Amino acid sequence: MASIMIAVMPFVGHVAPMRAVAEAFLADGHRVRVYTGAAHAGAFASLGAGVVPWRVAPDFDEHDLPAAFPALRDRKGPAQMLANVREVFINTAAGQCVDLRAAFDEEPWEVIVADGLSLGAHLASEHTGTPWATVSIVPLTIPSRDLPPPGLGIRPGRGPLGRARDALLRGILPLVSARLERDYRLARSDAGLAPGGRPFGDAWYSPELVCASGVPELDYPRRDLPSQVVYVGTLTPAAAAPPPPGRRPDWLPDAAAGGDPVVHVTQGTLNTEPRDLIQPAFAALGRQRVRLVAVTGRRGRPELPFPAPPNAAVSDVIPYAGLLPHVDVMITNGGWGGVLAALAHGIPLIVAGGDLDKPEIAARVAWAGAGIDLRTGTPSPRQILAAWRRVSADPAFRASAERVGAALRQHDGPAEVVQHTLRLLQARRAPGA
Q1: Rounded to an integer, what distance in angstroms lies between the CA atom of residue 188 and that of residue 122?
Q2: Against a cut of 0.85, is the pTM above it?
Q3: Of 121, 181, 215, 349, which one is least surrounded by beta carbons within 10 A?
Q4: Residue 60 in contact with residue 38, Cβ under 8 Å?
Q5: CATH number of the domain where residue 354 is located
Q6: Confidence band (pLDDT; 50, 70, 90) for 188?
Q7: DSSP one-letter string for 396-411
Q8: Is residue 244 part of a domain?
Q9: Higher pLDDT, 184 or 81
């Protein structure tokens, strides 16, 4: 039995996959504690894991980030991404480190398994000298000499001009990220660490083990992929539970028996303004012969500020184990967990990726041929209707989605994270290590 600390940033989209990882460690007989925000403590305590709450680090409500981080107010697009990285991830890192060091002093762990966006886990690992395994719950953003800088949502260039463009962008990146590098250095200092250490661009990934959600079929090819990276597929339990009574939409029995195609529309769990995507999707497809299923992404809040068409069902959240086997096309804001879940079922996608990591995810889906990148987070009804007609008429999209899905289904992500982490521990314990 090993003593495991799992660090999870307090976002629903981070908690769900890391909960599956915690469950896999517990099922394998290990002692598990989880460091996360108070709103998500119950999700891990219900598994039997110990919970270490954010104390010195400023806990927050992901649905009202400006309340804890005023600098995020009225930010959208690239400005939001940069402010998010600085305020939510870098400026909380020192506090996370303090919290984790206190937990380590109380009861040492053998390895810290961290959500890839938990910089505090990296700093705590450096302080304690314990190994650190990264679980990348978003697409890999490790820089490469073969790719444009990560996060821009653009595909690798082709030919001499395309490669020159990518090289130019890579050269500009240090200038753009200079302030983030300074903020990260201040966070290290505030955490009591000496100058030096890994540079900001490498600080998100363990030098020993990176368990990357996804598969190579959704990642651009590169010659310099670090040797510690392993792909683990989707981070969901191997056997997901069926929807609980009362949460199963009444259209599901009819959908299972055939009839009109089912189109799932989701705004995700962060930046859940339904007018951005759900409303134009309703306008585009409300008169089509489809069955629309929309989720607001806010548990306990299924209401929309506009009427739904007669062919639409609306819920707050729906467990994907019950929903996705009946879905023909998904229209999504591009959250990585939802995208992987859809592709694991061979469902082609229409992606409206507006900010944060979403444009990058949308570009990868289109590059893989598994869907259409709308290149905006606020598409018009006409854009959605045209994309839906393309995806529905061209079987190549479904074939590509199924190809990616077949690769995803080869994995049991949570179990593989456990296996790779235990190998890391064994290597550390070996004589002379």
Answers
A1: 10
A2: yes
A3: 181
A4: no
A5: 3.40.50.2000
A6: very high
A7: HHHHHHHHHHHHHTT-
A8: no
A9: 184
